Amino acid sequence: MTYRIAPSLLSADFAKLGEEVAHVIASGADWIHFDVMDNHYVPNLTIGPLVCEAIRPCTTAPIDVHLMVKPVDRIVPDFAKAGANIITFHPEGSEHVDRTLGLIRDSGCQAGLVFNPATPLTWMDHVMDKLDVVLLMSVNPGYGGQSFIPGTLDKLREARAKIDAYAQKTGRRILLEVDGGVKVDNIAEIARAGADTFVAGSAVFGAGKDSDPQRYNSVMASLRSALAGV
User: Fold this and answer.
1) Under CATH, which architecture does the 4-228 domain have?
2) Which of 58, 160, 169, 217 measures 20 to 30 Å from 24, CA to CA?
């Protein structure tokens, strides 16, 4: 199993966003997770395509855009043009899930569905051929710094079984990502439940707010060490 760590910019220092991106990638992060909230689908307002475009020159690492917006289709091409590599969205934000997945892929990005803690996985059953990523929320979306919901572990096992069965049938792999409350002391347990990609916000960016560009090395090394033991 190849594991990916995707620090969430939601917990970064927005006054130094470009530097934060460069520092976490230098510390060993694989992706940059980009949370987009609209104060409509979720009770918070964050960042849009212009910020994505601004940080794109700061790294060659994949930018993983998580759209917590409704409706979703209008904004997809803007993020693709701004430099997103992966775009995921919540099925509740789309009138036609299959069509939105097709729009993302036609825009040149990998596509994925995001499942809230109470959203059933049955949404993925009819669109597996268009999925590159399945993202399970292990908190209710809207704010960073929340605690991991333990019931997500069973949901991860269910999603892993679906993904593995599909891979055995087709030979095509779908990534299984988890977002919310991921930290050093639970990442191994989450990996054992089936996740291969981990969004970590406050666990990474909370490691320090000083000017030392090496401040994220220790927490990234600890996350990698925990995963190595799985």
Assistant:
1) Alpha-Beta Barrel (3.20)
2) 160
